[in-house]
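Let us work through a complete example step by step.
Step 1: write down the sequence.
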Amino acid sequence: MDYKMARQSASMSVEEGPITGDLHEVTPVKNSRQDVRYFDATTMQTGQGDYGRVLCFSPEKGAAFQRATVNKQSVKSIDAQKTTSSSNPGTFDVLVSSRSSAEATEQLPFPWRELRTTEKVLIVDVLALGPRQRVGAIEARLLLATANRMVPLNGVQSELRVFEICDPTGQTALTLWDRQILSVQERKSYRFTALSTRKEGDRTMLRRRSPLWVM
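Step 2: predict the structure and record it as tokens.
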């Protein structure tokens, strides 16, 4: 994906020009399948309860976005485009290109607030979500796992393993990376936090980035 493709994939343009909002969870710079470098912010709050995703195709802005997130400052981006999300209908994406400027600001009509990241949900709730949705916490039992395999991630070979997990309401899959794999055992139950969803066909699955606790 690049900036042009992201614009074309949006079903309609919602807003163009200066866009201001709070950022949460800015990712490291990564490479798309088209070998385009970009980073994203999992969530951008542009209004009270109004959340979306940022796709920034200007990697040099990453440090400024990270600082704003750590300092709990908002970011104002000039010449950005706010579109309906192509991957999650009902939400929006903010597209930032190399032509867009970005600066920290505190001029927002609503206060910066922490996202709720520890609210527990059930697997049946996860299965109803679209891709790239935040899931605060889930308590589940690890079942069978696939064989480990190596995949390129941000230019580095990383190890992944997919586990089938279940709770009393349903079953799905969870992807773990590198050292995370060594932290778990099959047939044991864990509390996983700071999850996000992904789609594989019609199935909603999970991936995790943060610590977990044995139950």
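Step 3: interpret the result. The chain has two domains: 3-105, 123-214.
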